[in-house]
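Hi there. Long-time user, first ticket. I'm pasting a complex I've been working with (about 996 residues overall). I'd like to know whether the download I got is complete or cut off, because the file seemed smaller than I expected. Thanks.
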Amino acid sequence: MSTYEDLLEISEQLRNIQRSLYLLAWDERTYMPEGAIEGRSESKAELSQIYHKKLTSEKTKKIIDELNKESAQAEMDEVQKAAVREMTRDFQRRYKVPDELIKEMSKVSTKAQSAWEKAREKSDFEMFLPHLEKQVELKKEVAEYIGYENEPYDAHVDEYEPGFTAEKIESVFEPMKKNLSSMATEIFSKELEPGEDVFEGKKFNVEKQKKVCREIAGELGYDYEHGRLDEAVHPFTMGMDDDVRITNRYDEENLNSLFSLTHETGHALYEQGLPSDWYGHPLGRRISMGYHESQSRMWENFVGRSKEFIDHIFPKLRDEFPSLQNNTKDGFYKRINRVKPTFIRVEADEVTYNLHIALRFDIELGLFRDEIEAEETKTVWENKMDEYLDIVPEDPADGVLQDIHWSAGQFGYFPTYALGNLYAAQIYDTAEREIDGLESEIAKGNFDELRNWLRENIHEHGRKYKATEMTKRLTGEGLDAKYHIDHLEEKYGPIYSL
Amino acid sequence: MSTYEDLLEISEQLRNIQRSLYLLAWDERTYMPEGAIEGRSESKAELSQIYHKKLTSEKTKKIIDELNKESAQAEMDEVQKAAVREMTRDFQRRYKVPDELIKEMSKVSTKAQSAWEKAREKSDFEMFLPHLEKQVELKKEVAEYIGYENEPYDAHVDEYEPGFTAEKIESVFEPMKKNLSSMATEIFSKELEPGEDVFEGKKFNVEKQKKVCREIAGELGYDYEHGRLDEAVHPFTMGMDDDVRITNRYDEENLNSLFSLTHETGHALYEQGLPSDWYGHPLGRRISMGYHESQSRMWENFVGRSKEFIDHIFPKLRDEFPSLQNNTKDGFYKRINRVKPTFIRVEADEVTYNLHIALRFDIELGLFRDEIEAEETKTVWENKMDEYLDIVPEDPADGVLQDIHWSAGQFGYFPTYALGNLYAAQIYDTAEREIDGLESEIAKGNFDELRNWLRENIHEHGRKYKATEMTKRLTGEGLDAKYHIDHLEEKYGPIYSL
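Hi, the file is complete. Here it is re-exported in full:
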């Protein structure tokens, strides 16, 4: 067996362990009985440990060192080189950090998450502060071990959005912030509530919502032979190669389930579009978190919340839900695209969402550049909310304590949500130019062209190309927030008479 | 850390891996989408391999060798000695067999099971024969590596019913066979169909069956905080320490679901009764397959199919299922205890069940003692069916091809089903003597006394005692089929006016 084949074998073994871990996690969030959490945590810790040991073993190191030699590289084709590059990256990120530090991070995270839950419940920032301080300190230490391009924060950005840096994100976010903030201010100043009373005071049968959601996912191209749709408090998608599962949640008082469904289906179509030849292969996965989010946001916002999709779906909704009898397509479309200031990121609309992210990115960068102390984050948060959205949360549970990410030590993750929206806009712009009559196909309920285009151009390449390279290949240029702004102006101009 | 603590640590690690494997298997049989079988098989194979390597590692060997030294044993208490004994047994059974042979068995089993499925479908014994021959040959080879008390078959009996041997089983089965066969013959000769038309031509709402089953499991003491009840084509129970899951199946045309439910609940109560301090401990599991089956059969037959339980449950059944309006408790009780000759083991009643097992045991022993050739099994099967039950299957799918076990190489497994029935009778006899008014408590729907008695006397001891020792401790004597016969005579005498 050649050294390269050895690498592929290790990659497959790792994927088998990871897939098992994913199933344990899926089960934990769907069907696991409450009293089983202790055993489940132990099983997950065990498999994680096995995964870590295999990835960072001396055997893996030898193979990776060997394959990175000039003589070995000279004999490889493009795919092989990319495979070695990605496995080397996975290996390095783990191998360079001492085992002791990895164990400490795991312990600190467990404590910090538990403290965060309590702090949020009690709206008590001080309770969480020492844990935030510890997490920042640890993550700065880790960054030194991993290494970075310009500054420590880059080491963490690289985990979620390989190839990106703080500077690169800043250069994209800066113009975006100004544009979004002024658009939001203009919209809010109008004090308009476009659309009709579609949900107010009404009930929407949950079983019917489930049925409709099941049908929509199928229509969009989700393959139930290799997946299933279940319920979860926080909807998520779990990609396990030939088994890609969606979850969704249902609220009797509105039809938000339709949009969480199109969102998760977007994630799932990406996973189901990965080439089956590459299951277990180093390249057989998503490019980055931002690219994954671009797929979910595209199917949620560019498809699901579009006029054309509502044209297609509204008659069916009115058939299923009698309380929509007196509503119109147009009234429904405008209602589900209302823009409102909110404290809570996960409730934010398309216009304000990236401002919520920009705020978090500003703070993370400030912490890592030693320009902000952890104890200042609450005040900085409030000031930035005031600056970007003209509202100030009085309760830290609606402000600095609202997200789980920092308690879990996931610095560098937030930006990928915003990048997802930006990629989505830029990619969809290209798709519209390359697919004849895309909008009218969507209005007819035909999603094949878009799905196949995404599959051919993105999904099937796994992570052969880095995000920056893929964006260039796809759209002919680097990432630019202007497509996001253009999309919002085009869409919300008519809704809000801007 | 002491060597004994090292042993406990390995035991916990193994259990964490095993629990993950169990969840993968549970999911495969409940919720996994059809198209996910390939990835699932690979993940299971990977975790099995990791389990095997850890159990048979040189590190484990060193610890086990060390703990089996006289000096080490001298310092241990009873529990520690038992823990070392059981871990040593688990280790030896794996360590002694060469890896190559284990791999070959796995491959042969995969092929044989697939061939068996096709052969059964086509009722073609010749299609399966070469695989049966290969399995017997391999299992004889394995027996030589593992070692045995008197004869090769013992090596396999020991896997499922530690401490038992072919001879010991023979000495219990021989008198049992005669008694059962003459009881069955007498019953059949009466050509009686006791009870009423309870199911014939009726429908029983499946959702209501599910509701009733859920309630019954709860009444028997099944803990839903550490478990759940789902559907599966072949009902099974999965014990994962603090997470013990039952499955059941429902048929609109009868209420068999009630008895598969009490059966699986019996298994689950055993698993939920294991001491939580011993999760992951070498002793923290069931004594043997026969003992596990004794719990399921006790709750299914001694409780579920008893007059007292039917007294308790029938009013509720009549409330839920209008089609029982014209039936009586007594008619229902007799109907669910009808004795009929059948070709199929899994459809057999309490009286004939152990004869189906005796037949399989006879054949397995014949094969391993070189008294029967694989090619003769079909004919021997037919002759024995004629001898024991006075019926002869014309279709091998109803005869020698009906069970999956031989294709999976599970020789030595069948006897444990019969041992389960024998243990159940003998243990229940003791329980009745030790628990005041057990029958009337059951009639009142109070199962606490029985469950607690089983928990204290069996479940809480894990596998500290071997089956033979446990039987002696519990009932004051060795295993004896007479309790099974007595139970059947007492129960079926009145039903069939014997």
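A couple of notes from our side: Chain B has a mean pLDDT of 96. The CA atoms of residues 431 and 453 of chain B lie 7 Å apart.
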